[in-house]
Design a protein that fits this description.
The complex is a heterotrimer of chains A (about 120), B (about 120) and C (about 100). With about 120 residues, chain A is of the alpha/beta class. Chain A has a single domain, classed as Hypothetical Protein Ychn, Chain: A, CATH 3.40.1260. Chain A has four helices and five strands; from the N terminus they run βαβαβαβαβ. The model of chain A has no long low-confidence stretch (mean pLDDT about 100). Chain B is an alpha/beta fold and about 120 residues long. Chain B has helices spanning about 20-35, 85-90, 105-115, and strands spanning about 5-10, 40-45, 80-85, 100-105, 120. In chain B, helix 2 links the parallel strand 3 and strand 4. The radius of gyration of chain B is 14 Å and the shape is globular. In chain C, about 35% of the residues lie in helices and about 20% in strands. Chain C is α/β, with parallel strands linked by helices. Chain C has helices at about 15-20, 45-55, 60-65, 80-90, and strands at about 1-5, 30, 55-60, 75-80, 95. Chain C contains four helices and five strands, in the order βαβαβαβαβ. In chain C, strand 3 (about 55-60), helix 3 and strand 4 form a beta-alpha-beta unit. Classes of the chains: A alpha/beta (about 120), B alpha/beta (about 120), C alpha/beta (about 100).
Chain lengths: ~120, ~120, ~100
């Protein structure tokens, strides 16, 4: 049975494996035909969304990966309050990621069949 | 839209000031309260320290948030549970807590978790 | 309900919490640093063996491989991300972060 998964990411890129696990989980889920009802970045997870990220080229580019996922139609949302605390605002947001309120996370939860949290 | 409310549970498992998880978790809980869903909070493990009385972060220069737990009722969030063993392990009783809670066993908490639409760690 | 553990048993109480709060037959997934609990020969092997008597225990292959854990405790089911997705599709999730 195909399901709708909502994904909550609570820790920062490169700092913790959370974002990698979330990405790999999403890729496998989509490959199996499931739907991702959204990805929400909260706590230090908001740092996943900055377009200023510029990692060494011999490693994965985490923000590029999220932007590409967004381009495939997955709704990727950064929490505005948690983002402002950490300097993530509209002007440094990567493509195909939007910034919005925690209400979006509630909506995502209500729309999803399952929520799964990746964090530290 | 008069849809049936969904059960959403927040599991406070981290202590309050060493990281921002419980604080931002509480902000999410408060927003959820506005959506007329069936919200509950469980304090277990070090999470029970969130609702310990007499906490004062003034010398840390951190904005305290523990008093916010007292406002939950105003957001229609009235189901607060604390794990019996987690509290006892820490030498605490309900008299040490700043909000009224129902004490539950781990078995009862597991049964409640299984009824939820979603469970969030905080 | 699926219970997930992502921290090493040497630094975290997640495994104790799972013993405390997981009901019999509920699956337990070890991933990220949680897979260190899967390695045989550590002081946690008896606990994992005890858990396996009541609950299915899974460990994520990519995390095992990354940490050179080639000898998981007997009875642990090694799964890939597809298996992880299947577990979440079948069960609601409690993440012991």
């Amino acid at each position: 049975m195909y399901m709708k998964f909502g994904i909550l990411v609570l820790d920062g890129p490169y700092n913790h494996e959370a974002g990698d696990s979330a990405y790999n989980f999403i890729a496998a889920a989509m490959n199996k035909g499931h739907e991702i009802s959204g990805v929400f970045f909260y706590n230090d997870g908001v740092l996943n969304a900055t377009k200023l990220m510029d990692p060494p080229t011999d490693d994965r580019n985490i923000v590029k990966r999220w932007s590409e996922l967004g381009a495939k139609g997955v709704d990727i949302v950064v929490c505005i309050a948690a983002g402002k605390r950490r300097g993530i605002v509209d002007s440094n947001l990567a493509p195909n990621i939007r910034i919005s309120g925690l209400g979006q996370l509630v909506d995502m939860t209500l729309n999803a069949d399952r929520m799964i949290t990746f964090g530290a | 839209m008069a849809e049936t409310p969904k059960k959403i549970m927040f599991v406070m498992q981290k202590p309050p000031h060493g990281s921002i998880y419980p604080y931002e978790g509480l902000e999410f809980i408060l927003i959820s309260g506005a959506y007329e869903q069936d919200i509950s909070l469980v304090f277990l493990g070090d999470g029970v320290y969130n609702i310990k009385k007499d906490q004062d972060t003034s010398e840390l220069g951190i904005k305290g948030f523990v008093k916010t737990y007292r406002t939950l009722e105003g957001y229609d969030i009235e189901k607060l549970y604390v794990d019996k063993k987690s509290m006892e392990d820490r030498g605490m009783t309900v008299d040490d807590l700043i909000v009224p809670v129902e004490v539950k066993t781990s078995k009862e908490i597991n049964a409640m978790m299984n009824e939820q639409h979603a469970v969030f760690p905080c | 309900m699926l219970h997930t553990i992502n921290k090493s048993p040497f630094s975290s109480k997640s495994l104790d919490l799972v013993f405390e709060f997981a009901a019999a037959k509920e699956p337990v997934l070890l991933y990220e640093d949680g897979v260190y609990a899967a390695q045989s020969g550590t002081k946690f092997e008896p606990e994992i063996a005890r858990l396996l008597k009541t609950n299915p225990v899974y460990a994520l292959q990519a995390d095992l491989k990354a940490r050179a854990i080639n000898n998981p405790v007997n009875g642990i089911k090694v799964i890939n991300y597809d298996g992880f997705v299947d577990l979440v599709a079948e069960h609601k999730v409690q993440n012991w972060l």
